[in-house]
Specification:
Strand order of the largest sheet: 1-2
CATH class of one domain: Mainly Alpha
Structural class: mainly alpha
CATH topology of one domain: Serine Threonine Protein Phosphatase 5, Tetratricopeptide repeat
Oligomer: single chain
Largest sheet: 2 strands, antiparallel
Number of strands: 2
Shape: globular
CATH architecture of one domain: Alpha Horseshoe
Amino acid sequence: MTTDALYQKATDAVERQNYDYAIELLYQVIVQDPTNVKARQTLWLAEKRKYGEVGPSKVTAFFKGLGPWVASAVHALMGKPLKIMADCERYLMVNPLNAAMRNKLAQAAYEAGDVETAIAGYESAREVDPKNVNTLRQLGRLYKEKFDAGHGRDDLNLAMGRFEELLKIRPTDHEAKNTAQALAAQRAIDDGGWQTAEGARGLIRDEEAQAELEREERLVRSEDEMDREIQRLEEAIKAEPKRTNLYVRRGDLLLQKKRFKSAEESFKKAYELEPTNTFTRARLGEVKIQYMRTRIAQLEEQLEKGPDAETQKQHDQLGAQLEEFMVKEYRQRVSEQPTNMEVHHRLGQLLFERKEYDGAMSMFQKSVADPRYRMAANHMLGKCLVEKGMYDRAINMLKRAVEGAVVMNFMVKSVYYDLGETYEKMEDWGQAEQAYGRIYDADVGFRDISEKMDYVYKKARGQQV
């Protein structure tokens, strides 16, 4: 029976309040199709209706859930996210109100490359435990990740909403505070006139009133409105010169307008008011990075109009300075934010570009612990090992990167591509064909995969190429 047919029978069973049968059918659906978010949500609904708001007794939940709980721990050690997801679902069948297991399911889904299921899992955990800081943080990060990838208004609003909820629980959380500010600034550019920004509230007034939310800020879209918003912020600063977030928001808008000197001054003032805020200090570094990038782009435009030795020299010198500064800046961010795996991962990328492979690997070995970077970090570790000529170890790392992946997205295809090239370097044509074949079967237009496949296919069979 197809998963569609199973799902239809399951929904019919839910309507008839035959929850045990519905749960059995829906579990079969998600085992066959782990990315079927709708089936998972229907499964959770059936479990909730079966047990109601109270859930089973603690004793019943413990004994019936012990097996799946142990299995999930074993599969976690083995690095098998799909198995973990199945274990978590089996556990939730007998204890659906366990938020920790829902979080574990969501994390496993993310590690498998299934962002939508991860979000659904974290949202279901939020329903059970709406004040869980980790759940809200992961949701904010995932919605922001989706927004950064697709620039969707809904994802931006959801990201802001989850970080705002986090700030109500933990008003001094730097990541939530700064991300909410950045998203508010982005929404100010993207959307709608002089409106009240409910989403811009999640910022804290001062140490005497940490639980009080910021007053509503305004949304702006056009260049003129941006200037008016900056003017409004300047007037607000005159009235309340100790409000750090006003300087940060003003600096964000000035930076987007490429008014680098003024942005730097605004961030400096914010940092003076809150010297422990490492995210604000990082913004000062970002001003310099954006300035140099803008200047490099201007020099490239000049070179496109006509070659010039002096302009080329300036371009090359500034490019080298930018590279040096970014490495220095991200080393400082790593030192200041030792638990922020995003800056570790970015420093690793910068060191890889400089061919400092051991240093890059040390960063990726840290960022791999964060589910957001597990696949990318293992991929980059594999690339480092390829550059060091350790092909057999590189292959193990690249395989680890795609282990459990259920969606053939761009990242997964990139890993398989590098895996195929590594097998080519070892002249293992059969394995190269298998690696390239994973891409070829899903997307024949990916890079030069058609040519790659033709080549290794013939080599694997001893044919003339």
